[in-house]
Amino acid sequence: MYQENYPQNFPTGFLWGGATAANQVEGAWNLDGKGLTTAEVVKKATNRKKMSMDAVDQVTLHQAINDHTTMLYPKRRGVDFYHHYAEDIKLFAEMGFKVYRFSIAWARILPHGDDKQPNQAGLDFYDRVLTELEKYQIQPLITLSHYEMPLDLTLKYNGWSDRRTIAAFNHYTQIVFEHFGQRVKYWLTFNEINTGTWGFHATGAIDQGLSKQQQLQLRYQSLHHQLVASALATKQLHELYPTDKIGCMLARMQTYPASPKPEDVRAAQLADQKNLFFSDVQVRGEYPAFMNRYFAENKLIIKMGTDDQAILANNPVDFISFSYYMTTVTKADQDGTAVGNMATGGRNPYLKESAWGWQIDPIGLRITLNELWDRYQKPLFVVENGLGAQDKLVNDQIHDSYRISYLRQHIIQMKEAIKDGVKLLGYTMWGPIDLISFSTSEMSKRYGLIYVDQDDLGRGTLTRIRKDSFYWYQKVIATNGTDL
Ligand code: BGP
């Protein structure tokens, strides 16, 4: 009898949808009072194969500030969601979305990052977006900070490296919760918080010219400030709306040992722990001992405020969300999280890779879901998963069978994880509409189920075209994941 007592399919009410980020879709970078953001001073990466965000230094920063065009800075253009939001949300509704994950640009609400009063036009824009979503009963899932922050806080404090950014952020989150809280049930704090160890794109702190050791010190200190700010945002939300749900968001870099050699297995375990450190803090409320050891052995001193530990302990998140694209391989001679095309860990000979070198591993998603559920026993949410590819427009059609195959295989593994007993709230695939790539600032790295007529130089009509994957995903949602 008990053998049948496990889930057989996606639960009723499973939240199917898609995810975007303000700095990759909105455009309107300098309209209606919005301030410049850290994302809008990053040029297109030079090496498309690696996940190499162009580093920002004082020179490139001041060049960007004085350049009022969009040509060199694709994230200033996005795909003009700012003016197309009603059309795009209608297309999401046509696919049957139950949820839409998007981010609020802090600099639309507080153009300088710490303005006393909010920019009303910024509030009005997101009110219009929420009104469109409500028309189709699509749940909003809002990310408070998705790889951008007001550039003025970089100029004033060097971003998150300065503790004063915590107060600025929580002033912003209080305004957002108070203004939109009635209409939003699901929130995320920092997108892929763990990638703050990579620098400027996530911390707004310029660290060019520092030694590796100084960079790590600055980045982990910045991340500590974000972890405190995240916990304070959780506190704010629960005080205002006790039944609303707020989650952490991790770039889950599931990694495998390069061989059964115990040293490789241990190296992979450490790489995994350094990734899960961030969700450990946000779910369990304290720094795990293995990271305190790592900091000590690497002479990294995290300066904490007297109340920081209590703030972290008393404000755990309600669910764990994460992005999943690939898995990596870790060898004993290198620890640390391998990124993108396994620059540090090496290739997995059993996996194919995307045109950008990301190794495709659907089974890895089932592994990750089981591990996260076992570790935290809190609901999970896959808030990014998708395939970046160079689509071809043929007679106004895009036959993206490769994207359908990628998504199908990952959905199959999510179903397996649910049957393993994992509590999964939903799935917002990455990029329901073509948008600007985060790591390379390219338009040609397309993720969308909807094609947008725009090239890497911003040329095009911005016309939206349904791809084959649009109709496929519509069917998946209509059958709650049974017809794949
Ligand atoms: C994640 C980011 C997303 C998205 C995705 C795809 O790390 O959270 O914003 O960009 O990566 O990466 P890319 O756009 O570099 O292909």
From TrEMBL:
It comes from the Bacteria. Keywords: Glycosidase, Hydrolase. PANTHER family: 6-PHOSPHO-BETA-GLUCOSIDASE ASCB-RELATED (PTHR10353:SF122), GLYCOSYL HYDROLASE (PTHR10353). It holds the Pfam family Glyco_hydro_1. GO terms for biological process: carbohydrate catabolic process. The active site is at E384. GO terms for cellular component: cytosol. One of its GO terms (molecular function) is beta-glucosidase activity. Belongs to the glycosyl hydrolase 1 family. Signal peptide: none annotated. This is Beta-glucosidase.
